[in-house]
Amino acid sequence: MQLVDALVCSEPGRLQIVQRPIPRPDPGHALVRPRRVGICGTDYHIFEGKHPFLKYPRVMGHELAVEVVEAPVASGLSPGEVCVVNPYLSCGRCIACLAGKPNCCVNISVLGVHQDGGLVGQLSVPAGNLIRAQGLTADECAAVEFLSIGAHAVRRAAVTSRDRVLVVGAGPIGLGVALFARLSGGSVAIFDRDAERAAAAQSLAGVIAVPAGSDALEAVRAFTHGDGFDVVFDATGNQAAMEKGFEFVAHGGRYVLVSVVKDSITFKDPDFHRKEMTLFGSRNATSEDFERVIAAIRNGDVPIGRLITHRTSLADAVRDIPVWATQKTGLIKALIEIGE
């Protein structure tokens, strides 16, 4: 029996390398070798014990660039081909899937969350969840998933060149939102109470940073001469910030909650109706969003080299992930390299 290394979060705060058998692919599945795995807020929450939908032990990793080892003939995939993985495994039968929204499938299973993910030497995944990405490097393929979250949110809001857009939260997801809102023609500003993160976002996404101060509402009002923004995106994962964001929306505007928290979110109904505001939730991404991101990377519209700030190996991730979870200065996106 052949074995491969896997990085397991056995319980909150504990990572270890274990050996696992190489899986035998189910019918319709492909056997792949992860090459790059991006680490995101979900992974840090799993490590810290803050994820609401997780059972331990768990192999994390859903931002994946993989090399095909073997695949069904009908898939058209070739051994050695490097692909992006859509980690949202949907049932294809529920009300959401039948409506063309597999990203919010009733029975969704997300790699690295509901089932073991990509921090392992070899992995079996449905061949239909592999997305070909000719011309992209392994680094670029690993960045597609988190950028697709932002691209999906922007598509939900139908951003156009007529829109003034505010993104609240300058982490990787907020950066993705800002990038694709700008590529959709919007006039984009970003707000984060951490001035360093806001400045980095301004440089990376080509947007304007709203000055951070003691009163976020006054800063936003000053920026828009009191009108508010046509579209506001929240990417903070903070209940208070999500509730505050309603105040930033202009009359007739849209508010998109990209981040999610376990708490209830409340808002002032008279203000909501006075503005005739539209409220959106945005969850995960679809194949359409993945393809849009791949095309943007291929066109040179996304500065992948500047977004990736940290790297490590599978073995050294046992040491590095706990550090990244607590010391995020200068960290945008960290990659784990496997089999290099």
Task: Choose one word for the global shape.
Answer: globular
- Count of spatially separate domains: 2
What's the helix-strand series? Answer: EEEHEEEEHEEEHEHEHEHEHEHEHHEHE
> What does the main sheet amount to?
7 strands, mixed
Which second-level CATH architecture of the largest domain applies? Answer: Alpha-Beta Complex
The N- to C-terminal Cα distance equals 23 Å
Q: Kindly state the number of beta strands.
A: 18
At the fold tier of CATH, the topology name of the largest domain is Quinone Oxidoreductase, Chain A, domain 1
Query: What level of helicity do the residues show?
Result: 25-40%
**Alpha-beta classification:** alpha/beta
How much β-strand is present in the residues?
25-35%
Radius of gyration: 20 Å
Low-confidence stretches: none
Provide the residue-averaged pLDDT: 94
Name of the CATH class of the largest domain? Alpha Beta
